[in-house]
Predict the 3D structure of the following.
Amino acid sequence: EEALARFAGAVVVVSHDLDTLVGITNQMIWMEHGAVKMAGDPVEVAAAYRAGVAPPDAAHPVGAESDRVAA
């Protein structure tokens, strides 16, 4: 992933797999209903996402009532 980012300059990854995103990105954006809800450090954004939207027992928190994208 790092070699690709150095070559390309930027790589955009869209996923709900927060653990993978935290492991491979240096910036993360949480979007909800087409608007940026939070951007910054992947660990901080993932923690806020989990705290804000995930039921306590969700392995991959995806709610039916809204669209959420982390990149």
About this structure: Confidence is low (pLDDT under 50) at residues 61-68. The longest strand covers residues 35-40. The longest helix spans residues 42-53. Strands lie at 28-32, 35-40, 68-70.
